[in-house]
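Quick one: structure for this chain?
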Amino acid sequence: MADTRPDLVIYGSPVSPFVRKVAGVCIAKGVDYEVEAVNVFDPPQWFRDISPMKRIPVLRDRSVAADGVAGTIADSSAICAFIEKKHPAPALYPEAAMALGEALFIEEYADTALAMAGGLGIFRPIFFAISKGQAPDLDKARDAWANQLPPVFDVLEARLAGRDFFAGDALSIADIAVATVLMQVSLVAETPLDRWPALAAHFAAMQALPLIAGPYAAAETIIRKALPTRFDLT
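Got it. Here's what it folds into:
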């Protein structure tokens, strides 16, 4: 019997913003994929073999190899660039050199500065604690919202400069990265962005796109089982 599974499998969980980033790129390009759950806290040996840093996501292209290291790519940015190369339309990386550089910078900024402040500062102190049966560290989360995220939001607001997209005049990897990482905060807390109107408008527009909304809905289904409502950190 022929294998009817899609070529691309994303190892990880939709709770990860980086898994959702890769899923969003696939959806934007109309590329079939599936997500295979991996417990990153106690990964099996086969996953350790393909993810030297024991991080998610890892992509497997079954058209290359169905097992082993061959056909796998670790790191969400590397994965998205691979998908762009293999499925170039619609393009998610700008053609113009300066716009491409800006897109790659914003993607990196979202994956580092925004992810550190929002993920490590808010999501983990709340959800990780609750999932372990502990009280959420709301003091740490409120400090992150009040002190760590505003400088990051200031940068994103300035880079948008009132435009619809971060790089060039069309949707790019930069927009997907910012939205998926910022929505990590939205999973556990309210995210009022009144002080940053351009970012607020961009975030609202991105949330309405199926490539963002679909993977987020899968994550929210998991989160709401343990956390029925979001916290107000203001």
